[in-house]
Fold:
Amino acid sequence: MFKLDARILLGTVAVWGALGFLCRFFTPETPLGARWGQWAFWLVFLLLLVSLRPIAAFLRGLPRAHAVILASVFTLLLGAQLLDRSSDTFPFVSWRMFSSPAPASVGPMAFYECYGRTESGDRVRLNPPRLVPPLKNYRMTVGLMQQVDGALAARRPDSDAGRRLSRTLRAVGKIYNRENPPTPIRAVEVFRCQMDPRDPGTRRSPYRWLVWSAEISGEGSP
Structure:
């Protein structure tokens, strides 16, 4: 199953060792243990890979120019993972996506929530994409968010952006009432919410404040 070719093995160790040595100087901020842990893992992986009989035979049969190109591509791909400076090494980038730690500079995050207000003053959480399922939910959520941002920027309920948002919210409210006749709502309200990852309190309950209200049978107001 395995075929040990000293020339291929030594070449792999030499190239990968030189790359690890260079990365140590280009990214000194990365913890040494994490860096060498990755380096050792990929070295073992490469050594096992080039020791497989079919792969070793394939590599021995490559012309020198082809072997250099193949080694260069693998070095760039794996080196970018080890270097972890994707903005500098693009299009050779780190493969990490969701495993990276959150940066310490993350600040408060803001988002919107929609509620329906009943005749008694109670509030019902509304989810517009579930009331009017689009092909993709983000089309509804992003579009509605942009309308709210535009209306708030205009600062006037009688502006074009304000009237457009009010019409959209009234339509959402009418659809909700059509599907929930026993508990109709009288207005649709938009709340701006803020959550700060650094504040344990807002992780459980974000800060909310009313930014827009549209009566289903009337005009909207900020």
Observations:
- Strands lie at 109-118, 123-126, 185-195, 207-215, 220-221.
- Residues 75 and 204 are 45 Å apart (CA to CA).
- The chain has a mean pLDDT of 77.
- The radius of gyration is 29 Å.
